[in-house]
Amino acid sequence: MIAGLGLRWILTLVFAAAGAFCLYRCARRPGVSDRVADALHAAMCVGMVTMTWPATMTFARMPQVVLFTAAAGWFAVSAALGLGHGRLPGAHHALMMAGMAWMAFVMPSAMAGMTMSATAMGGEHAGMDMGDAGMTMTGHAPAHVVVVAVLLAAVFLVAGTVWLARAIDHARAVARPGRREAGLVMEGVMSLGMAVMAVAMI
């Protein structure tokens, strides 16, 4: 899905770090609702890593669709009830999970018109021809995929910027930034990561 090898590794490391933080926070939180939220975010990080690499981007595609659709429903209900961090953050989490479910669902049609070749892979995968040349991508995703991807990318870009701005504001207001500030950074990084993944669908 991501053509550049360097960008793939950057995204992989970022998502892995965010997932590790979610698991760490999950183990330290007392509330069941917060633990479920962190566990779902960790699963989302794993899903984003698999989508980053051509060899695994359609791994367990339908189970991912089911999982992230259920996760979107969980966060939507939590936001409606005012649980967790509040309605607006909850809505953002629900949209991220829905975005993950959508990306997993449309991946084959989005990639069907693209041809990719990579030194690390051989054979065909998800409608892509893998050769021994350097990584190249040609073709275009269907129009409906492009429209949704552009909208999601724009929303996640704005949301990620807002989360990071909040993290900076909080860090300036305390003597020693801690887990709360790290959590805000994680939210921003994951949202920006979703924006990058949405752009890659185009």
From TrEMBL:
Transmembrane segments: 6-27, 39-59, 65-83, 95-121, 141-164, 184-201
Coiled coil regions, renumbered to chain: none
A Pfam family recorded for this sequence: DUF5134
Keywords, in A-Z order: Membrane, Transmembrane, Transmembrane helix
Recorded superkingdom: Bacteria
Name the record gives this protein: DUF5134 domain-containing protein
